[in-house]
Each structure stands twice: as C-alpha cells, then as structure tokens.
Design brief:
2 domains, disordered N terminus, alpha/beta, Stationary-phase Survival Protein Sure Homolog, Chain: A, 302 residues
Length: 302
C-alpha cells in the first residue's frame, strides 16, 4: 500500500487539478491520478445542495443523496410534499416554515413551499453560501422539451440555483405515468440514473462547465443503451387535451391532460430518450431570441 501525505501549502502552490493531470509517476509506475479518487474540491470539502419537486419521501432523493455523498457534504432541502408542475414559482404571499427531520439516517430540511423556495432557503439560510453544486432530482418521470423547462419544478429549482451562482443539474428518470406524481412511491430502479449522475458530476469537476451553460437538464431513459447524447430541447412533448367533467352538484370542472407527440426531431432530447440514449441538454438562463434586432426595429422606424 502506498500512502501519500500532501500539505495544505502544496495545494496553495499547485492546484490538485493540474497535479492530477500531469504525467508525474511514482516509482511503482502507478499514475498519480489513480492514487487519488478525489479532486481539489473534494479534498477541501465540496458543498452540495440537493433538492427535488417530488417531496421529502421520494426514493429518487435518497438515490441522489447516495451518489452525491461521495463528492462532499450534502444538504438536502426539499419541499414537504409533491410539487410537480409548479415551475419556478416562489412563495411571496405567505411565510415559509422549515422542519429538520431525519429519514433512514438522511438529514432533510423540509420546506413547506416550492422547489424554488427550497433552493433559496437552502443557499441563504441553511448552507449560508453559494454551494459548489446544486442537484435537483432524481425526478420520477422525464422532463423533456421546452414545456418542461418552463413548468417542471425539478428544472425550476436548478434554474434558481444557477441564478444564485451555483453550478446546477436537473436529473430525471423516464417512467410510466402510473408511477409519477405519487405521495407514496412504488419501487423504482435508480441504478442507471445514479451511474449517469456520478459520471456527469465527475466530468463537471474535471472539465468545468463551458461558458454560456447555466445548467444541465439530464434525462435517463427507462431502457438505457449505455450511451449519451448532447441535445437541444424539443418544441413540445404533449398535445394539450382538456377533460371536462361534472361534480355531483352538476358543476363543471376540468383536468388538463396531454397526448404525447408522435414525432421527435433528430437531435432533440425527446428523440434521444425514445432511442435509448441519456439526453444531456445544456440550458442557458438567457432566453433572449437569437434574432437580428434590426428586423424588429423596422417596426417602429418605417
């Protein structure tokens, strides 16, 4: 067994990132990089905020926690109950209460608000600083297309974290509708999603996030072929459908529903998932249309 002791002063002189990427070798011929299973951020204590929109009892939260615990200190701050579909909504008309609980050994700060509320409370009150990484998930059900980016509580939480200055990931697992949006969850296999999350986090640490990317929206197919695709957002996932019903007193009410789009353009997240690939979509907070503004300025200059 080889034991290597490195002083803090050493890290002030040479970053571990550069150290690990060098071709330094010890006498045994073992590459130095293989002797370390952590990067500088892990050595110094990476702080990770974990949240979701499925609530504190979601098995996806525990699966996510198990992966992230390998990289540093994890702060689980989640909505108390199911909050799917609330997007990036924030509670500004009512107070927010937080309860500290432990479930099967996992410490959780339960927030009686939205996923965005959980991120804001988590960063500014619980951690007290911007975390090195924020992960929202593992969501029970895929979050695909432009619809998900604007309506998903999972993605909304990651967007908020990115706005606050944290690197951010939203990760979701494809599954049938019958297993989504539950209070008490059926067993699910998170092994592929955990593997994907671990590999993505490792690469974020190693390569850094390219400029212009504010978060990664990751979707793991139910039947993964073992490969990845970097994708753009599909235009939409569902064709809107409204189910009209009547209550026992004859009053009309509605269920908003949708039928999945049959066609998926190549290169989109929807196309990737349907073909067994993990979809990784780089998202930017800047939603400004990439158009020549002079075309619009003519509206008022004619």
């Amino acid at each position: 067994m080889i034991v290597i002791l490195v002083s803090i002063k050493f890290f002030n002189d040479i970053s571990l990132k550069n150290f690990l990427s060098s071709e330094l070798k010890i006498k045994s011929g073992v590459n130095i990089e293989k002797c370390f299973k952590f990067s500088l951020v892990n050595f110094l204590g990476m702080k990770i905020l974990l949240t979701n929109d499925d609530g504190l009892y979601s098995p996806g939260l525990r699966a996510c926690h198990e992966v992230l615990s390998e990289f540093g200190e994890v702060f689980a701050v989640t909505p108390v109950v199911q909050k799917s579909g609330v997007g990036r909504s924030i509670s500004i008309l009512e107070p927010i209460r937080v309860s500290e609980i432990t479930i099967d050994g996992m410490k959780i700060y339960a927030v009686d608000g939205t996923p965005t509320d959980a991120v804001i409370i988590g960063i500014h009150e619980i951690i007290g600083e911007i975390p090195d990484l924020t992960v929202s998930g593992i969501n029970l059900g895929e979050n695909l297309s432009t619809e998900a980016v604007t309506t998903s509580g999972t993605v909304g939480a990651a967007l908020e974290a990115s706005t606050q200055g944290s690197k951010a990931i939203a990760v979701s697992l494809e599954m049938r509708d019958i297993f989504k949006f539950e209070t008490f969850f059926a067993p699910a296999d998170f092994s592929n999603a955990k593997k994907v999350l671990k590999e993505v986090v490792e690469r974020i640490i190693k390569h850094e996030v390219p400029e212009g990317v504010d978060l990664f929206n990751i979707n793991v197919p139910e039947n993964w072929n073992g490969r990845y695709r970097f994708t753009k957002l599909a235009r939409r996932l569902y064709r809107t459908r409204i189910d009209t019903r009547f209550d026992p007193r004859g009053r009309k009410y509605y269920w908003i529903d949708g039928v999945e789009e049959e066609n998926a353009d190549e290169g989109t997240d929807l196309h990737a998932i349907r073909n067994g690939f993990v979809s990784i979509t780089p998202i930017s907070l800047d939603m400004t249309s990439r158009i020549d503004f002079s075309i619009l300025e003519r509206w008022f200059n004619d």
